[in-house]
Design brief:
Layout (H helix, E strand, L loop, with lengths): L4 E10 L3 E11 L4 E5 L6 H9 L9 E8 L2 E2 L5 H7 L1 E4 L11 H7 L7 H14 L1 H5 L10 H13 L5 E5 L7 H18 L2 E6 L2 H7 L2 E6 L2 E7 H6 L1 H7 L4
Parallel strand pairs: 3-8, 3-9, 6-7, 7-8
Antiparallel strand pairs: 1-2, 1-4, 4-5, 9-10
The protein binds adenosine-5'-triphosphate.
Keywords: Amino-acid transport, ATP-binding, Nucleotide-binding, Transport
Pfam family, one: ABC_tran
InterPro entries: AAA+_ATPase, ABC_transporter-like_ATP-bd, ABC_transporter-like_CS, BCAA_Transport_ATP-bd_LivF, P-loop_NTPase
Length: 245
Amino acid sequence: MEPLLSVNNLEVIYDKVFLAVKGISLEVPQGSIVTLLGANGAGKSTTLKAISGLLGPERGEVTRGVVRFAGRPLDRLPSPRRVALGIAQVLEGRRVFEHLTPEENLLAASTMHRDGAHVRSLIDRIYGYFPRLAERRSTRAGYLSGGEQQMLAIGRALMAEPRLLLLDEPSLGLAPRLVQEIFDIVRRINQEEGVTILLVEQNARAALAIASHGYLMENGRIVMAGPARTLRENPDVREFYLGGG
Ligand code: ATP
């Protein structure tokens, strides 16, 4: 069966000259969690943006290669059309509307739905995954903790009822206990909602614990790929990405 997402020979050039992604290929099977690992600046966020259509040729951000989703090439399809097809991205750095409450943030992300009852049931389902957001539904998002804002950012993406969720470093800046909590919820969203997940992370340990497959990126290239278990046991991955041991 064709994977839900496949990326073939993707290249991304910034400012007409800087090759940030140098011909990578990867696959994300329907229903899976796949992780894209690598250090700061390896090209992971750029790869996600190429998939969600957030790169701008008008800004000299040139993309080459083929991205296929649900059986069709995405070509130059603009980002809102990709969202409509079922691709949602949670950007790095938990972008939420800080002056709005969680409830208002979720409502603001619901414009694709016309049925108010459906919107309500989606929001309640999201509160079910993130009870803390429900508790703080009337507090301005700017006053939420980093972990709560990350939860809200994921909730906003879920409002689009995506088939594929692109998550960019959900663990960034969070205490270990919260990282664990968020990753547990990501796993539940995958299992209970059937959402396929491509997870970009620097925290290789946490990501490989929930992913079935992983790709390791260095300097714009994929240097290693395989089942999560194989990567966890690889001596180089252990030394450089799992902090030794
Ligand atoms: P991070 O964890 O910091 O997001 P990353 O692996 O996601 O790292 P990218 O953000 O994709 O890496 O960056 C890859 C390379 O492209 C880096 O060298 C970065 O400096 C460069 N880059 C990223 N965005 C731009 C941009 N808008 N214009 C020019 N260069 C960029």
